[in-house]
Design a protein that fits this description.
By secondary structure, the chain is mostly helical. The protein is built from eleven helices and two strands.
Amino acid sequence: MNMDKCSDEFPTTDVFYSEISEDVPTIVSLAIASVLAISSIAIYVEELFFIHKHYQTGDQRAWKITVLLGLYPVICIMSLIAVMVPTSFTLMALITACYISFCIYIFIMMTIECYGGPDKMIETLANDKVALATPPCCCFLFCILKPIKLTRKSLKMFEVLAMQVMVVRPVVLFIAAVLWTDGRYNVKVSVDEPYVYITVVSTISTLLSMYGLIVIFGASRLHLKHYHLTLKFISLQVVIILVELQRLVFSILAERDIPECIGSRGSRVRGESALHIADAAT
């Protein structure tokens, strides 16, 4: 397959590697991304030994922490593969989204289990009021959304908000992958392109999930302080925010032909490559 001019079609590996053979900045970026990915895996392996040493076999918290810590090497590896094999970017995005969604579910379940279950959680928070005017969706509605007491019904609502991303994002990205195999999924901002609607749905789902997660965390921050919940929450949120924010930034830049076309790789192709290198560095 030969691609003689700039295109938004992702090149195959033979075309890609033949073009970057003399592109020193790209080669250096790939080398740095590879080193970071290997370092991430090494750190994760070290953490597995630490968990194995300090937690008893069969401890439910141990495997949940293992899953959460795995978020970083998974994103690094998937991003590196997407850079090394450009045509795989949609599949790698699907796998990453599924894992992030699963981590959100694990975090919520771990938080509730730290209380001793939903009943104990509601009992502990019975006299507390939960703030609803929180980012990223409702921080400007503080005059309308007053703090409420947490009930079983409201807890379930926030759980659903936080965990709906487990279904919505993988489904819409699966649709994107199917459209991509048929040549109908183009990374272009146009009302005629499925990319726009898939991105909007995915973004809204992510924001609602973050909102539900932040409300549950805000209610639990002080009561579960001895579990160091804040550090776990911040690490999860930072990854989600950076991944989504970087994708938005690179999409906007690609609309303005930044970075410029090189060989057969148009701005969108090079932008996706830079995005995945940034994700690996994250």
